[in-house]
Amino acid sequence: MEDTAPAEVTQGLEREGAGRRPVVEIRNLSLTFSTRDGPVHALKDIDLEIEAGDFVSLIGPSGCGKTTLLRTIADLEQPTGGSILVNGVSPQEARLARAYGYIFQAAALYPWRTIERNVTLPLEIMGLPAAERAERARRYLDLVNLAGFERKYPWQLSGGMQQRASIARALSFDPALLLMDEPFGALDEIVRDHLNEQLLGLWNKTEKTVVFVTHSIPEAVFLSSRIVVMSPRPGRIIDVISCDFPRDRTLDIRETPAFLEIAHRVREGLRAGHSYDD
């Protein structure tokens, strides 16, 4: 039997646009993994609010807990201390209400399904009629500039195109929140720049709230409305930096003094947080 969310939970999620409550509220959150070699302290004392329409990037050294924090928002990991709310409800309730779309580091497309049928997979699970599934696939593939590729298979597309298809899949059920775990990290710089521009345009069009994990300082500064700088494990927030650039910015902004100043502050925060030797 399919999980469903209580009506009051869904209604609470739909009220997100009212702006009375942040989309994500994290208070004093900690997470410790139990392993055979002893406890691993992944996150400690995390306090963070993410407002509707924000594009928030999480950046920090490898192993600092960026992905763990993202997975905690998504109810894929359970905190061992503190609290977290997604649109005013628990992460589990938000997951059951399909309040977010999750984009992984790899595109995670099924090779035996066409691009259209990969995009419509969540809609099939939800039981939507075939005609509506096809219309949504068309709409969101067009939004990510993949119109005409509906009948192709993932192995017939480039890596960047596959990631755009995975974004279309995450958008297909129209979640208010997108959680993106370093989706462009394996791509070359030219493709990555192009997808950064496309993602920025997509954010501008849809006005989704985005939480984005990256290791790239230029990517974080270019995409974000705010950057959360994290320390090595156990991951703590050591700085939150606002990026007040126009929403329709282009890659040329990376040469401006304002961009370079923010990039310098991020770099200094990472150095202050210290060591890449763990």
Kindly describe this structure.
With 278 residues, this protein is of the alpha/beta class. It has helices spanning 7-14, 66-73, 91-96, 115-119, 121-126, 130-143, 159-171, 189-206, 217-223, 257-273, and strands at residues 24-35, 38-50, 55-59, 81-86, 100-103, 177-181, 209-214, 226-230, 237-242. It contains 10 helices and 9 strands. Helix 8 links the parallel strand 6 and strand 7. The model is unreliable at 1-19 (pLDDT under 50).
Oligomer: single chain
What is the 3D shape? globular
Give the H and E element order.
HEEEHEHEHHHHEHEHEEH
Number of strands: 9
The main pleated sheet reads as: 6 strands, mixed
**CA-to-CA gap between the ends?**
45 Å
Average predicted local confidence, pLDDT: 89
Helix content: 25-40%
- Give the amount of beta strand, in percent: 15-25%
Low-confidence stretches: 1-19
Strand order of the largest sheet: 5-6-7-3-8-9
Specify Rg, calculated over alpha carbons.
19 Å
Number of helices: 10
Derived structural class: alpha/beta
Task: Pick out its properties.
alpha/beta, three-stranded antiparallel beta sheet, disordered N terminus, 278 residues, 22% strand, six-stranded mixed beta sheet, 37% helix, 10 helices
